[in-house]
Amino acid sequence: MSPERRSEPRWGRRVLLALGAVLVALVFGVTTASVESSLGPHEARYDVTTDDTVTIDLGPLGTLLINSPLPLTLGVRVTVQEIPASVTQLSQAKTLEALSGDLQSYLAFFSGPRATVQDVARALVVDALVRTGGAFVVLVGAWWLLRMLVGSARWEELRARAEEHRRAAVAAGLVVLVGATVLTSSVGADEQPVASRPTSAVFDGTPLQGAEVTGRLGGVIDTYGGQVVAELRKNDEFYAKANASLKVAWDTRQALIDEQDARAERAEAAASASPSTSASSEPLASSEPLASSEPLESSEAPTPSGTAGPSGPSETPSEEPVPSDDHLLTIVVISDLHCNVGMAPLITTLVKRSGAQLVLDAGDDTLNGTTVEQYCVTTFARAIPNGVELVTSPGNHDSSDTSKRYARAGAKVLDGSVVTVDGMRILGDKDPNETRVGAGGTAQATKETAAQEAARLAKTACAAKDGVDLLLIHTPFVGENTLDRGCSPAQISGHLHKRYGPEQIGDGIRYISSSTAGATLGKPTIGPLNGVAEMTVLRWNPSTRLFVDYQIVQVRPDTTASVFPRLRWPLAAPVPSVPAVPHP
Description:
Blueprint: H1 3-31, E1 34-39, E2 42-49, E3 53-57, E4 63-67, E5 75-80, H2 92-99, H3 103-111, H4 113-150, H5 152-162, H6 166-185, E6 212-213, H7 216-273, E7 296-297, E8 329-334, H8 344-354, E9 358-361, H9 374-383, E10 389-392, H10 400-408, E11 412-413, E12 419-421, E13 424-428, E14 433-436, E15 441-444, H11 450-463, E16 470-472, H12 480-484, E17 490-493, E18 500-505, E19 508-512, E20 533-541, E21 546-555, E22 561-563, E23 567-568
């Protein structure tokens, strides 16, 4: 037999052995994957199991057992790491009281659980791949080490003896290894779920329907869980109604705009066909408002405009012609969401309905910037449709950790340099201060003061080779230096939970967005709205590199929504220079 023919079976065996090693390593990697993440307001550890059950272990409180949605009998064990052992000494009422401070966080988590699930799933996949790679390297290393220890002559002898039993041996070896891996990664028999355990009726009609509860947790959930589930349902119903209201309000306003555009086209066509009679034809778009000056509500009952504050903008509708929509960049502005993930579907609706290509987030997406609030920023990032850019300037309630997670979820987090997004040159940075509720209030985040950050941003804007189109910064006064020096024509901020402007500051125009969570002093931002939530739709002209108009969108605590007419974005008037006074 030729050497070529002898080498073919050898390479075939090597390929089979490599595939077997990959299979064993993959099973080991998947079934032993583990990550540290959050569960609602708690830090938790997630471990993959093979018992086809999602087990949420709350330590002395007990466990919550749910059928696993994972394939191949895979499950997950979630170990909550912040339940103290001393809680076993408390009564059910005291236990609930001890946990009641986390109610809003639980509500936010269950309002947007997909973000946490996706984050954990991604982290588990990465960990499984790392473990698989490590196991494969160990197997290959062990293989070659064994060959070296045995020696080539003895190895060939053993291989020749095992040749006739090769297939059976390989199959048996794989079965043993896979079985051992599965058994060692599963929970013990005493921890396996028992089919006869009663399920909690509290979860009927929720994603946790059919869940089994053990230990003290069962009594707490049966006694008080109905209140939490009721709040969850109330929250879901509120935002479902608000979202439906927003859709109706936007579509009604857009119908008016489309009607006006059609009337303008007919007027232009009539003027072109008969120039001598153009004076008596229908009025052109430039001679009439864009739409009614009244905001359109989902109930079709207009609310008076012309007043400041929550009732709507006081400016008159734009009467100047603007370029066609195809040549404008449409932008949605959100701000100060403070973990109100209930607003996420409404943000999605507005972005889709308006056809926005860019979303500007003026910061304060979380409450305290903690790692367990990752589901907030992840939910907001995934509320933005595919293909739409998201740019954010972190606020004083955010942190470097939540900003990193926001960036990981797809947001472009400003860091003090100029970035170009959809043709717009944007400058911004994180807030110079940090606010931690219950931990001393507001303090300086770094060695750089607010005044120093303002001066640095102004220097960067003025030195930008191609200029800056927009300064996006959370706290308004941090941008005043840049506007005073005329180094940015526009600034967008948040922080104050109330809308101001657009108004001229220095040589630029500043717009302060109100809270998209309806933030109200002394009221929680999680759950149904306690104040008027606002978003803004802007249109920007790439040719002039200036904003054209803006449009206020409001959602109120009674679930009604208003879409105001487009209003002209003001042009900055020249600021007269003060002549120097000569010395006598």
